[in-house]
């Protein structure tokens, strides 16, 4: 099945209902947590493309309040059900929304996190995405991005390291593997990247596969 925005949505809707997605099984949590800046208790965090809400639960454990968006309504309903079940409605809520048009006011968040979402947004929309993240962050806000890295040798039958574009698609979904230079180019005008690192993970899909993720924490530049 070729990539199209509609096919991609269908995939996410199905995969996150059945737990058959690839991403959630990558144990990125401890590294991502180690990248978080020191923020005050009750700081407000936006999680973009929150999926099953597992990362949001980690943020709640840090003492933050969390708003999440995901563009699949059934995923959002499921996370909110879980939030209700755990008695966390005072501290967290998910809403349906697209990362390219974040449904929140300007300068409301201390931290925005994107764990594996931007890598599924087409390159033509990256500027718009960056503008939206910048808009909703407070003046001294931070942004954490965790994405597939172009340092990946082999994954799902692809060779991202040898790819000139870093673009792939499978089951109707678009995947981008980022280089450090790309991240700098995409975010550099609006954000100062304060720390960046990589981590390699075994893959459950194929013993030969190893996925490399790039972790970047950035600070909003003053306009
Ligand atoms: C790879 S999953 C990551 C899920 C979650 N962040 C995690 O770490 O488990 C990508 C998620 O982003 C959502 N997504 C993709 N493109 C989006 C967009 N443009 N706006 C909002 N959500 C999006 C998908 O529905 C999916 O839940």
Net shape: globular
What is the CATH architecture assignment? 3-Layer(aba) Sandwich
In what order do the strands lie side by side in the largest sheet?
3-2-1-4-5-9-8
Distance between the termini: 43 Å
Structural class: alpha/beta
**Per DSSP, what share of the residues sits in E-state strands of 2 or more residues?**
25-35%
Structure commentary:
It is built from six helices and nine strands. It has helices at residues 5-18, 29-34, 54-61, 73-85, 126-136, 180-187; strands at residues 44-48, 65-70, 92-96, 109-115, 137-148, 167-170, 173-176, 191-202, 210-220. The strands form two sheets. A seven-stranded mixed beta sheet has the order 3-2-1-4-5-9-8, with helices on both faces. Strands 6-7 form a two-stranded antiparallel sheet. The chain is globular and about 45 Å long. The N and C termini lie far apart (43 Å). S-adenosylmethionine is lined by residues 12, 16, 23-24, 49-52, 54-55, 69-72, 75, 98-100, 115-117, 120-121.
Features:
two-stranded antiparallel sheet, globular, 9 strands, binds S-adenosylmethionine, Rossmann fold, seven-stranded mixed sheet
Summarize this structure briefly.
This protein has helices at residues 5-18, 29-34, 54-61, 73-85, 126-136, 180-187, and strands spanning 44-48, 65-70, 92-96, 109-115, 137-148, 167-170, 173-176, 191-202, 210-220. It has 223 residues and is α/β, with parallel strands linked by helices.
